Structures are given as structure tokens and as C-alpha cells.
Amino acid sequence: ESYCWGTEESVSYFYEGLLHAGDSAEFPEVEDVKLVFTACFPDYYKDYVRAFRRLSPELVVPFHYDAEEDLDKAMGL
Asked: How far is residue 12 from each of residues 27, 44, 71, 73, 75, measured CA to CA in Å?
């Protein structure tokens, strides 16, 4: 279950607590999430926050963001 921007098909990876959902702002229903690598597109920030509250990971590592412009939002994840 993955919905990456600009693609017809995509996949998310989940292995031993590590979740990598590519550019997706929607995340699969999994348990025991410890670490998430996620895109951090400003238009989907609320979707990311909602998903991470549900998944409750120990750490979120954002990518695909401009640190000079969007660091405050990336830090909020």
C-alpha cells in the first residue's frame, strides 16, 4: 500500500521495524514501527503527522525537503 507522487505503481518496505514508504504520504497498516524514512513534501505535512500518530514510530527521518525553507516542518515530524 503506497501512493507515490507521479507514479502509477509504488511499494513501501517494512522490515524488522523499519518502514520506508518512498514518496508516499499514505502509509500501510503495520505494527511495531521503530524507524520511518519518509518524504517531507509541505503539501502533505498534515497527512504525515496523522500517519505517524497512528504508527507511533520511535524516530522519523525525513527526506525530499529544502532544509533552508522547510526545516521547521521536518523537525515537527
From this structure: 8, 17, 24, 23, 23
pTM over 0.90: no
* Host domain of residue 47: 13-68
Domain count, the chain: 1
Burial class of residue 41, CB neighbours in 10 A (0-12, 13-18, 19+): middle
The answer to whether position 22 is within a domain reads: yes
Q: Is residue 73 part of a domain?
A: no
Mean pLDDT of 23-30: 84
Q: H or E segment at 48?
A: helix 45-55
